[in-house]
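INFO  loader      accepted 1 record
INFO  loader      residues=356
INFO  predictor   begin
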Amino acid sequence: MTIDQARFPAPPSPQAAADWRLCVAPMIDVTDRHCRYFHRLLAPRARLYTEMITTGALLHGKVARHLDFDPAEEPVALQLGGSEPEALAAAARLGEQWGYDEINLNCGCPSERVQRGAFGACLMAEPGLVADGMKAMQDAVSIPVTVKHRLGLDYDDSYDFVRDFVGKIYDTGCRVFIVHARNAVLKGLSPKDNREKPPLRYAMAARLKADFPDCAVVLNGGIAETGQALALMEQFDGVMLGRAAWHNPGVLSDITRACYPALALPEPAQVVEAMVRYAGREVEKGVPLRLIARSMLGWMSGRTGARAWRRALSDHALLNRNDPRLIERAWADLASRTGQAAYELAASESDGQSRI
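INFO  predictor   done
INFO  writer      dumping tokens
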């Protein structure tokens, strides 16, 4: 692909737009590689995103620690935090070299720490600087360069503000916009409050889709249920789930079944088996089991035995043993409560340790 093609791609085909049909949001301290591996088992077609990684962390830190991922996670996008075009270009180049499928620029995080770094949501006030960064990244890589942004800053509800911001970025050739359909309040609200208190304005996000019809517009914010996600997919090119995917990961499987009825998803017992094997490999590398198991805590939400499942996978004494079969034992306990067939590993792999 030439630089011109990368910067000014053709309008996305329906198939291209479908690549963003179901996404899991980048979440700091949540969507690490272990969480993404688990989410990929639940939603084979979803597009997964890293936590936001700053350009400084990549250019001056241990690159492998930030960028290593399992090939099973693909398609996976690297979200960058930064504002300096040269640094963004260098970081994007590293992401492409590491095998990421997309580079996404964070223009939505409202935390004061991020603001002190002059990136995140505060960048929406400087669309020219964002455009320079986007062009620098597009020149540096051949994979899609996208942006995630809010609808506005503080208490300015003007549509003109976000339309002009998107228009400036559109002129660089960007054709994928992930819209968190709330404002970002830069002073006075915590990051948690910024995810909940500014009102959702899906209608304004829909206006962006109408005004930029050749773009893939992905809606983020307040999406928690399967029916809601499917309805919004009728208006937008995709939806992005955030905290819902963490608190109730099973919703990813439910949406996937509805969107791709011909796709065979792994049974829960097969997911458990895959996670036990994955945890075994990671624990051997020195990764604490708790970092792997935490993304699974909400998986059984709403089911009989969910409390016992959470208790087992969050028990510090059990987790400190770093025995991957804790996941298997928690599943066996759940199965006994619900009458499901318990998952068992092959006898040759059994370590003979007692169950919970």
